[in-house]
Amino acid sequence: MSTFSGLNTALSALYAQRRALDLTGQNIANANTEGYSRQRVELSPAEPVSNPARWSTSNGVGAGVRITDVTRLHNEFNTNRTRAERGLNAYLQAQSTVYANVEQTLGEPGSTGLQSQLSDYWAAWSDVANRPGDVSARTQLLSRAGTIADTMRTTRQNLDNLYGATREQLDADIAVVNQTASGIADLNARIALAHTANMPTNELSDQRDRLVLQLSELTGATGRLNSDGMVDVSLGGNLLVQGDTVRTLQAVGSTTVDGLGVAPVRVRFTDNGTPAAVAAGKVASHLQALNQTIPNTVAGLDHVAQTLIQTVNAQHAQGYDISATPPSTTPTPQPGGDFFTGTGAKDIAVAITDPAKIAASSTPTTPYQGDNANLVAAVAKNPQGADTQYRNFVVDIGIQAQTVNRRAAAQQVLADNVTAAEQAESGVSLDEEMTNMLQFQRAYEAAAKVISVIDMTLDSLINMKR
Length: 466
Prior knowledge:
Elements: H1 3-29, E1 39-45, E2 65-72, H2 76-106, H3 114-130, H4 135-196, H5 202-219, E3 222-225, E4 231-235, E5 238-242, E6 245-246, E7 249-252, E8 266-269, H6 281-316, E9 340-341, E10 349-350, H7 371-377, H8 386-426, H9 430-464
Antiparallel strand pairs: 1-2, 3-4, 4-5, 5-6, 7-8, 9-10
């Protein structure tokens, strides 16, 4: 190796180590940047003869070092697994929130819940049976019946509000999906152009993969990396993003729980109306809540209200009241009418406003008996009655919520582990980067020392002629 070629070799080392130091500094600077994949300089020896030919010559000594590439430390398998686990985790966490909202709406168990109010209501019937002529006992019965009706209507309205809020959130998340998909397509186009121009795409790829992960958490979408650096995103086998082309989604269906039977809520592609198979993510949870969880809760509450109305009205109609025909104050017992009105939890109400209209007696000749009131109170023990149905209804919701919560807790651990495994490979380790920095710095100093030694040698050789 000649003296001047040694300068060139040392100079190439300076360039390479300085670039490596710059890249190490970039890694350290982005240690806390979400979605950033650490980068590494790939070095290779510079060949003494880059284009071998018949008459070319070489002394066999290398010509220094050159940078062949800046590698983005990224494992596509780990990335795809993270997307799948994070998508399922987002679905289960959202489902857990839905059941928490449903349980909060029902307020069970608790002193203000419907179960406690039903117990007080049946106890009021027993009080009327013990004191059929006591106006205060009858007034208390109507008050407790009104409390039950109010609670059922309020609970049903809260469930309707929860449905409406979830429907609005679905529309908002679909808008985010469309915006994110457009961002992925735009980055795909920029990455393809950079590939064509032989320019680095590491930062663009990080941004693009972060958007794909966001899309996975919303819809459970999957990504496939192509040879040109672009990623195709699909939902259940249907392409949502193909290269720089994007399709949009829209949510259709009822915005109220009462209209669900006519128009179920669905997500479909805007261009041809085909259904989008959303299997995971927050959007899938919204669909589950809108089409099953909330409607089933509403149906269960309505069924309890219908049973309460029917059973109480049927037994109340078998008795007689203590009402009097004005101006007389002597009771002229009349058969009991409907105690409740309505067709379900949405419109249940107490039909009686006059305490004397409560049909506590089973015979018109003895209106101050309480035997029919006892029979109404006994409805509480009916295996097919409203009390039993409501208890089973609450228990079923509790079991479903517990199952979802357990799955969500287990999935959270799995998602965290998968994410940690991906970060261990592609994330920035400050300890490793500081070690690399020392290594590159020492190499840079050594290359500078070589140049300094060659400079002194040349200076000595030149001065020898003097």
